[in-house]
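Box S1 | Example of a co-folding query
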Amino acid sequence: MSPRRFPFTRETALLVLAYLYVPVAVLIVYSFNANRTATVWTHASVDWYGRILVNPSIQAAAWNSLVIAVCAATAATVLALLAALATRRAFLGRGASEAVLNMPLILPEIVVAVATLILFVSLGVKLGLGAMVAAHTAFCIPFAYLPIRARLEGISGTYEEAAHDLYANRVRTFRRVTMPLLWPGVMAGFTLAFVTSLDDFLTSFFLAGPGMTTLPVYIFSAIRAGISPEINAISAVMLVVSVLLVSLSFFLGRLRR
Amino acid sequence: MTQVPPSPAVSIRTVSKSFGKGIYAFRVLDDVSLDIGRREFFTLLGPSGCGKTTLLRLIAGFETADSGAIAIEGEDVTARPPFHRPVNTVFQSYALFPHLTVEQNVAFALEEQGMARDAIRRRVGEALEMMRMGAFARRRPAELSGGQQQRVALARALAPRPRVLLLDEPLSALDLKLRKEMQIELKMLQEEAGITFLFVTHDQEEALTLSDRVAVMQSGRILQMGSPREIYEAPTHRFVADFIGDINLLDGEALPGGGVRLDSGTVLPAAHAASGRVTVAIRPERARLVPAGTGALEATLVHSAYLGTAMLHKLELPVGGTFLLRQSDPAEAAPEAGRRVGLSLPGEALRVLAQ
Ligand SMILES: Nc1ncnc2c1ncn2[C@@H]1O[C@H](COP(=O)(O)OP(=O)(O)OP(=O)(O)O)[C@@H](O)[C@H]1O
Ligand SMILES: [Mg+2]
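Box S1 (continued) | Returned holo structure for adenosine-5'-triphosphate
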């Protein structure tokens, strides 16, 4: 006899799924709407996708988002890798170090964004791309760190001992054994950091400086002029890219355990 | 002309090792000294936690000794890191690199030693052939069975032709049948390759079958070292006697000039040079059943088990305690359970051990 289930389990699950995904589904459906007014359906079309491809401000914003995400994710991944290696063995203050590393996950982003803005302004740091990369790097570190550390914990120290035993010194062991085994975790960490940076609005909004936009900032300002099907299309593209990358990172993280 | 004897393959001098600090310090190896001859199959045998792995790791260089010195073929390696020691290890978990193929695993050490490509290819081929793993060269470790992984681990450790091979319970992950096969293979391999083997096990049968010499360890000390025959037939410690094979231990008082008065009052004619409290040990196969009243001891037969090649009798001594007796001819008539019988204990089969 199968264990008795609570009544309405299936119905509840469907409700929750609808609650989570109906808004997104509506957005995607309307991104294929031919009507100028975003909320009135006439007939299907991919016009808006064509439009966003040739819109120069969207192109510029997308390019900025991409540059920031690549730079910030790379820097964050390198730092996270070093941090993960450094916190591998037990030492006094290891727990505290990890807490500090993961702090961006719990600090309210608005507070950090405002604080960073005030700091940069008072130091005379020019707002714009550089400032945004620096700030994005900081909050991306935990996203890169967690998969790397998880992977590192899964690699038993015996592999490294075996490499030493087979005459590889510390540097060679790192190159030939530790790093190849760690690689899927590093890729997963990079991808998560990349997506996190790509989706960020608050920090970018505060640190963009005049005349500078990223995709999320562009969407925000465009929406103030009214909801247009164009925004639906950009959002759908961002959604697909994010989902693909996160799936990729999940897949990499589980690769060849 | 005098010949200098070759220095031992491995020489360990008064090595001690503790884990933990201050009041948590725990001494795992206590003043261990031993010499392993060249081409010897030497086994460390002892119960779990007695420090076998730690001693092996000290020789490999994964741990550093608190005091003492370790030399390999006469060269002091105490301060050398593992990658500068001419020894290789077969790990209990094999530790094959999962991201490399079988042949890449075996080639690893040769590449690190800077050997030429052709020479590496030849040597890898030989090593895999010797372990009958040539057909699996392109596979990854995850695609091999336990026994096959074991063979690859051996091939990988033997390929650089180390002076000493360290093996930490390499057979413990295999099932009984494969284990027996691998035991024979290991022994043949060691004789063929002419390499010194330092083998760790807590399986006494395995130790006796394979080794030229065995060191029995207990709580970080070596209690006795010798050939399997010496260890089995002439144990010097109660612990060694008890750990290896079945044995009967009878407590008593050493009498000056020979003989032991057991706690039951019986005097056994056992030769010794001891005094005070002692234990008399006798193997089950050395005692014989005789009619009641004619043996050195009296006992009641509790249970007899037919083993095919022998009968194993379990007897109860009147003062309490059981006595095991192995009758080598199972066809010989045996008394029924519950009968009183006598035990004949030949003097030369009795070992007197200090307590
Ligand atoms: N890194 C370590 N830190 C603290 N204690 C340790 C460490 N390594 C081993 N020990 C302790 O040292 C003792 C001996 O360990 P060791 O692994 O040498 O035993 P062993 O004889 O190989 O046992 P087994 O047959 O179970 O493998 C054990 O009590 C163990 O708990
Ligand atoms: Mg061990």
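The pocket of magnesium ion (ligand 2) is lined by residues B 52-53, 168 (CB under 6 Å). Chain B has two domains: 8-233, 246-354.
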